[in-house]
Amino acid sequence: MGLKVYLSGEIHTDWRERIIEGAAGLDVSFESPVTDHAASDDCGITILGAETNKYWHDHKGAKVNAIRTRKGIADADVVVVRFGDKYKQWNAAFDAGYAAALGKSLIVLNPPVHQHALKEVHAAALAVAEDPQQVVDVLRYVLTGALPG
Questions:
Q1: What's the CA gap between 69 and 7, in Å, rounded?
Q2: SS3 state at 130
Q3: Where are the domains of the chain?
Q4: Phi/psi of residue 127, each to 5°?
Q5: pLDDT for 4-39, tens place per residue?
Q6: What is the SS3 assignment for 60-110?
Q7: What are φ and ψ of residue 19, in 5° steps?
Q8: Which of 8-22 are b and which e, b meaning 16 or more Cβ less than 10 Å from the residue's Cβ?
């Protein structure tokens, strides 16, 4: 049994790389949104034309990015959503809700400080992790039945 995993959420730390490296050897493939912040912000105006109003600039980019995000979440067996320390990831909360609405297996990854703020997101998740290694351990267990250690 192989798994397709979509890695959503914050783009300022190496959590994706840690999960991908930790899952080496497992029958799992990974997809994610564009993690180049500048490219993600400016894709709409670069491809579809400039906007003088920042709202429309962001609107175009969000819609172009949503094409990739919707496809990635729809095709995934498991969606991992990371909420980081530095910024409020409203897009991550949206992705978690979208994945839950599609009935996707959801793993939420966040520091303990966000426990209360994410209680509704946690309620929809099948696992709530605080460290990327815990996500790897969940994937390993699901694929092999092996416990860590």
A1: 10
A2: coil
A3: 3-33+75-144
A4: -150, 140
A5: 999 999 998 999 999 999 999 999 999 999 999 999
A6: HHHHHHHHHHHHHHHHCCEEEEECCCCCCCHHHHHHHHHHHHCCCEEEEEC
A7: -70, -45
A8: bbbbeeebbeebbeb
What proportions of the chain, in percent to the nearest 5, are helix, strand and coil?
50, 15, 35
Q: Both tokens of residue 3?
A: 């798994």
Q: From the first residue on, what is the mean pLDDT of each consecutive set of 10 residues in the chain (149 residues)?
A: 96 95 98 95 97 97 97 98 84 96 98 92 97 98 96
* Strand, helix or coil for residue 19: helix
| CATH topology classification for 3-33+75-144 | Rossmann fold (3.40.50)
Assign 8 to helix, strand or coil. strand
Residue 149 CA to residue 116 CA, distance in Å, equals 30
- In this prediction the pTM is 0.95
Note the pLDDT of residue 70: 97
d(CA 52, CA 43): 15
Residues 6+ apart with CB under 8 A from 49: none
* 70 vs 81: CA distance, rounded Å: 14
Q: Which tokens belong to 42?
A: 């400016």
